[in-house]
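Session log. Operator J.P. requested a structure for one protein chain; no other inputs attached. Running the standard single-chain path with token output.
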Amino acid sequence: MQKTDILCIGTALVDSIIKGFDKEPISASGYRARSGSLNVGGEAVNEAATAAKLGMNTGILCFLGNDPAGDMILHTLSDFGVDTSFIIRENDHPTPVTTMFVNDDGTRKSITNGAHRYNFHPEKYADRFLSAKAIILGSLFRAPFDDPDIIYSVLKTAGDAGILIFADTKLPNFHPLSLEDLKDCLPLVDYITPNEDEAKYYTNEDTPEEMADIFLGYGIKNVIIKLGSKGCYLANKKERILLPACNIDAVDATGAGDSFVAGFASELLRSASDRDALRFGNACGAITTTAVGATAALQDREQVLAFLASQNS
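Structure written below.
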């Protein structure tokens, strides 16, 4: 069996992205927006698409319904070069569809529904991720990783096999969990990558240094806090690194954090240092914000390297 570089495990969905929404109605039941588009999304999809574009042998373990939304995701991932043979499809549950309202500054709000509540069981498919060099959980605290037993089983199996473990995070939506709820799981994580809002929520601290200390206190080996326009912060027992954000005009921040994680992980697998991998991940996230949708802007590794060179000139 060919060794997979990165296997992304988590949610797959379709984003209905509405940009420039006008809150003033034009009729009793009608509103206008500047644009509307359908894009594949979900943390695992975004991360897998980015990793594959960056030249990694990438797979995805996720659930899709046997419906048009699932077909769209499957075809899009195949076009990006992602190995879709790990995907689970069934008739009993629909593929989730998210409505997203994107503001002109790139920030966004999303609407989920009951389809997002379905929690498939990746721990039952260990044979599908044991061939990977690294796995990315997208994301802790969201299905399927909102159940401590599922999380522990996946992390323990991967850790025992020597697989590098990256855990992105999200704020909870249906099943709230705390760090204390996952105290047995967290020491198995090699890199955890919350954004600033998520880190504040889970640690009740205000600064990156204080937030990182809480995560490290739970035995996580490395903490990366994504700080948006302020850059990113990495902490472990040996070093602390604060990198500024790239200079970019953001259009849509959807998927930027996912691209960051995939870019960082891909460079680590190429034997980059933490600092160089951070710079590369920073660039991936920045490029992703320059177009609407999580997978539209970033094309390949050469584009990212050229962008980094331009930032240094």
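Operator note: Residues 4-312 form a domain with the UDP-N-acetylmuramoyl-L-alanine:D-glutamate ligase fold (CATH 3.40.1190.20).
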